[in-house]
């Protein structure tokens, strides 16, 4: 188990969402974060396919 801290900031609204959880994989942590904050972490799913540690998303 690892502790994951996921954080997303919407630069247009300055809204920031952070989510902390313990999971065995990053994918599992993303599923938990998406369940807790529907739609907010969705943009990260495609950015992390190659396993980036951080990724700016321009939507």
Protein structure class? alpha+beta
- The proportion of strand residues reads 25-35%
Quick check: average pLDDT?
A: 76
Number of separate structural domains: 1
> How are the strands of the largest sheet arranged?
1-2
Q: What string, H for helix and E for strand, traces the elements in order?
A: EEHH
Task: Describe the overall structure.
The protein has a two-stranded antiparallel sheet with strand order 1-2. The protein has one domain (2-50). The chain is elongated and about 35 Å long. The chain starts with a strand and ends in a 12-residue tail after the last helix. The chain has 59 residues and is of the alpha+beta class. The chain is built from two helices and two strands; from the N terminus they run E-E-H-H. Keywords: Plasmid.
List the helices and strands and how they pair.
Layout: E1 2-10, E2 15-23, H1 26-36, H2 42-47
Antiparallel strand pairs: 1-2
Keywords:
59 residues, alpha+beta, two-stranded antiparallel ribbon, 2 strands, elongated
Could you write a compact summary of the structure shown?
The chain is built from two helices and two strands. It has helices at residues 26-36, 42-47; strands at residues 2-10, 15-23.
